[in-house]
Every structure is written in structure tokens, then in C-alpha cells.
Amino acid sequence: MKVAVVGATGMVGSVMLKVLEERNFPLTELIPVASERSVGKKLAYNGKDFEVVSLETAVSMKPEVAIFSAGGDTSLEWAPKFASAGTTVIDNSSAWRMNPKHKLIIPEINANLLSEEDKIIANPNCSTIQLLMALKPLHDAYTIKRVVVSTYQSITGTGVKAVQQLENEYAGKKEEMAYPYPIHKNALPHCDVFQENGYTKEEMKLTNETKKILGDDSVNVTATAIRIPVVGGHSESVNIEFHKDFEEADVRKILSDFPGITVQDNPELNTYPMPIYAEGKDDVFVGRIRRDHSQPNTLNMWIVADNLRKGAATNAVQIAEYLLEQKLL
User: Which of 199, 231, 209, 203 is nearest to 135 (CA)?
Assistant: First the structure.
């Protein structure tokens, strides 16, 4: 079992390696892949050093699985080349997500759609993954009509440059900036690039990916995505209108019973999800569960997850694990 990690030296790539190691994924050979300037460097994995190779070299090595986290342009160019060589690609970029020929997978929700023919599999957006983990079981129970979501997103979603910007601002240094404004002591209502409709790409990902993963175009989603000076993970304030009524106690039980969800919801003890405690964990944490008193059949929730783990690396590795379990590799 040869596994290539494309973008192995990046922020998500390094977490991919960590998750593969933690979960004892049964690889026999790791193929770390990065840009030409990183070729020849050594990366430690499971007590051994592996040499970083180029994309071209990695394709020629014919890995069984290639997990991509190297940006959309790289995925568009190279994922088909790996697939043509017989490799199953799990791609963490937005390149293939809305392509009708490719599956968009959260294992707990729709891994059953996968087959041996799926050679390029899309990993959803980090914000979408944690949102859908909480929405799916409630949609099954009460049928969602409309979702209003505001995200409060970690700077790690932007990458190393954003983390450096925040650290520089902490230290009072003026260096290269990842954002158009300071992020320290600030909140930017600006994640990804603005579209003609006034929404950002990130906001439209939440709308479009939700419909595709649920397989239901009738679910309406409107989003506002905000970048905040946090490292641990993404948070989401979610308002959900259902077609059917619900009891709060039933909602808590449904969420608690869903794999990968941890309910943290006891206001009397100040118990609620926070990114500082979600960091480094694979679960999606849900709290502040309460009825919206302004209209019927409507619920408010607060959802938090580590965007580098369940929002990216862990979800991708779980897809690979599923393929292996089902003998689809």
C-alpha cells in the first residue's frame, strides 16, 4: 500500500501525515510530494525519514492512494494523471467538488456512494464538513427547509502566511500580510474572493456543497463567512428551519448518537464548544442548542471543529480507510 501525500510540506499536508500515523493507516511506503523547491528534503514519518519527490516522480511510482492538499490548480492538472496511472485520488481542494462526475464525500454521511470507478474523490470544504455533520441527522429526522450560517474561521484555513501575519502583529512587526487588513484584535467578513453576487467563494461553497452532499436541492443555505484571530478551529452559528417540529431533548440525543459528533451543551456549567478545546481533536462539537423563539420549527446551534483535522486531513484519511475496508482499492 503506497500512499502519496501531495502538498506534504504544507500546513494541511503535515497534519495529513500526523493523522495517517495516529490512525495507523496500513501503508507500506509513504511518498511525500511537494513543489520543486522542496524536492530532496526529508520528512519524518513513523520513525523513518522519507524523501520529498516531485509530482512527476510520484505518478511514476503508481501509489494506490494519493491525498492532495496542494491547491486547485495543482489538482486540476495532476489528479487526472494519477488517476490514469491507476491511483485513487482524494482531493482536498475545491477543484472537483461541484463537478457532477465526482463524489463529494463525508464518510459518516455518504461514503456508501463510492465505487471502484471513483478515481478522483472530492473532500468538502472545511466549514461544510462540520456544518453537514450536524445537519445530516437532523435533516433525516425533521427535513431542513432553510439554514442561516455565520462562520468564525481560524486563520489556519488561510495557511502558514496567515499564522505568520498574526504572530508578527502580536510581536509588533510589520511584515508580509496574508490579509488586506490586520487580523490581530480584528474580524474580517472576508473569506476567499468576492463573487458577482456579493458573496465570497467560501460562502457559496457552504450553499452549493450542502445541497450536493445531502442530495437535496430544496435545502436553502445562506452564509456569512468571517475570519477571526483564532488558531484552534472554525466555529459556526447556525439557524435551522425545519418542515417538522422537534423537541430539544430529541435533538440532543440525535446529535449525540451520530458518529463523530460530541454534544457540549450545559449553559448552567458554562459548557459549550470552543476552538481552543477543539484543536487537535477529530470530533465535531455542538452546543448552545435552543429553540428559535422568533418563528416555529426553528433551531439555533453552535458548531466547532478543528478545520485542519476533521475539516481536511482526518476526513480525507477516513475516505481512504473506507475504500480499504470495502476493498475498493
Answer: 209
